[in-house]
Amino acid sequence: MSAQKSSLPNKPIASERVRSADLPVAWIMMLGLIVAVGPLSIDMYLPALPSMADDFGVSTAFMANSVPAYFLGLVFGQLFYGPFSDRVGRVKPLYIGMTLYVIASIVCATTDNEYVLFVGRTMQALGACVGAVVTRAAIRDRLTAKQTAKAFSIMILVMGLAPILAPSLGALFLQFSSWHSIFWFLAAFGTLNLLLTKFFFFETLTEENRNVRPAKEVLSQYWDLLKDKTFNYPAIGGGLLMGAMFVYISSASELIMDTYGVSATHFGWLFGMNAAGFVGLTQLNQWLTNRFRILSILRFGAMMQVISAGVLFVIGLFLGTDAWLPLVLACIFFCISGLGLTQPNASAIALAFQKRRAGMASALQGSLMFSVGIFGGLLLNLFPVNPVLKIGIAMFALMGLGCFLIWQIDRNLNLDDAE
């Protein structure tokens, strides 16, 4: 099948909707826009937390509870959309989730009660998470394993701009309007995703490949998936490595601004630099997958992350907050940037053999990532030590275990067998 690479493709006929010969770059970038609603929703309103707290008459720390409320919605929402999309196809769940997201964003924009806001944020997550589940599954439906790794790299190029730009964009909105405008913008972005779904997202799951097992067997199917070694090692290992991102997000302001006294402006630049490193290595990953085995690249990236985390741990143990800031930042940079080599490839391997349950596999993989993120944030609070050592312990623990699981993947695993 030929595919347009410079513009969004027309909807192909049914017989063309699986296993493209060419990489449909424009279609993949469109999927990146759909997934970007998640990181936009997480990061864009962070600069507004103090003003929101003032309006609601509560502390900023209390208002920050809306962040874990959002993460919880992501965990449970994905577990629903996965089996649902395997049963009914990929299009209907997108309509349902994005409609819920738009409604929830409007609730957040118009409420004057902090608890209603928390409920609205959870509803936002329940709607937004459909994008991550369905797009990963749709890519698995349509592309080969090697193409899937490249596709995830391209998609991250688009969605990866969100965490780089979102905090600055949110701050820009606050200069000209109130925090309500941020949620109105998110509602508009959700509406854009509905239009993209309507006009450019075609069904990728054919009738014969749908999961027709009874809905009551969903839990047993998830359990079977967790026991599948072609899935569990890359999915859980990749999820633990991804936990580094959430540990960093949870501790960055305390470490960089409070401990080292970096200004808010420079903090934004440092935050964006790490995200840019992540995006940059995902693009390098496209080139590498043409020359090396996906598993080899994944293992290299995991080692890069765990070594960087180990150095950070040692620095925190012996130097603490007297450590040279550029050295601390360099360790964090390689920890976060390494995700560009581990996440696309771990996802490609985890989904490669899940033909009839790609949606469930995508959902479970995403839920594992955010569960590790929540756990990583809690892990930070268990160690009453200096901030450098605290982040070093959490990152090294998660990455060490994640790297161990990655190295348990069968080195002779042939992804061509999954096609």
UniProtKB/TrEMBL annotation:
Keywords of the record: Cell inner membrane, Cell membrane, Membrane, Transmembrane, Transmembrane helix, Transport
Localization per Swiss-Prot or TrEMBL: Cell inner membrane; Cell membrane
TM annotation in the entry: 21-42, 62-81, 93-112, 118-139, 151-176, 182-201, 231-249, 269-288, 300-318, 324-342, 363-383, 389-407
One GO BP annotation of this record: xenobiotic detoxification by transmembrane export across the plasma membrane
Pfam families, A to Z: MFS_1
Record-linked Gene3D superfamilies: Multidrug resistance protein D
Molecular function via GO: xenobiotic transmembrane transporter activity
Domain Major facilitator superfamily (MFS) profile: 27-412
Membrane-topology descriptor: Multi-pass membrane protein
GO cellular component: plasma membrane
InterPro entries documented for this protein: Efflux_drug-R_Bcr/CmlA, MFS, MFS_dom, MFS_trans_sf
Family to which this protein belongs: Belongs to the major facilitator superfamily. Bcr/CmlA family.
Name under which the protein is recorded: Bcr/CflA family efflux transporter
Provenance organism: Psychrobacter fozii
